[in-house]
Design a protein that fits this description.
This is ABC transporter ATPase. The chain is of the alpha+beta class. The chain has four helices and nine strands, in the order βαββββαββαβαβ. The strands form four sheets. Strands 1-5-4 form a three-stranded antiparallel beta sheet, with helices on one face. It has a two-stranded antiparallel ribbon with strand order 2-3. The protein has a two-stranded antiparallel sheet with strand order 6-7.
């Protein structure tokens, strides 16, 4: 069952998929339509899942699931990953590679392989104050409060001296 992301409770589970490039407005519109269609039919063991979508900065696909009504099962999570893989193929974009870091560089958003980010930290090109996107958040509340944070407040801190 599709719902507006903003209406999901704060304890809803979230999954964040970051694109390796900025998506065009046309791609965002198509991805929104396809994802809303998927979420409207998404089930776990025959039960409808109350889920919503948010696309941020033409770069991040955020799926939210109200687990109070029904929780995702292994099969339903697999279905969502297969759906994301279909988006990767259709739009020639990488959404599942967790070995990349997305962060602000001035007012722009940069996307780099983790190895490059580590080198940038060593070279002092990024600092503990660099705002990073912590895609490891698990709930909507964490997403709203702790997704865009200084590197010192996320798992990225281990690369900073």
């Amino acid at each position: 069952m599709l719902t507006d992301f903003t209406n999901l409770p704060d304890d809803s589970r979230v999954w964040i998929y970051q694109a390796n490039r900025k998506l065009s407005d046309e791609e965002v519109a198509q991805i929104t339509e396809l994802t809303n269609d998927f979420l409207a039919k998404w089930t776990a063991h025959g039960s409808e899942l109350e889920a919503g979508l948010e696309i941020k900065y033409n770069r991040f696909i955020v799926l939210g699931l109200n687990q109070a009504s029904a929780s995702a099962s292994g099969c339903s999570i697999d279905a969502s990953v297969h759906f994301i893989q279909s988006l990767e193929e259709k739009f020639d974009v990488d959404l599942l590679d967790k070995m990349n870091v997305t962060f602000y560089t001035g007012k722009y958003i940069a996307h780099k392989p983790l190895t490059d980010f580590r080198k940038m930290a060593k070279d002092k090109s990024v600092s503990k104050n660099t705002v990073v996107f912590n895609n490891l958040v698990n709930t909507k509340a964490e997403y709203l409060e702790n997704w865009e944070v200084p590197a010192s407040e996320s798992w990225h801190a281990r690369f900073l001296s």
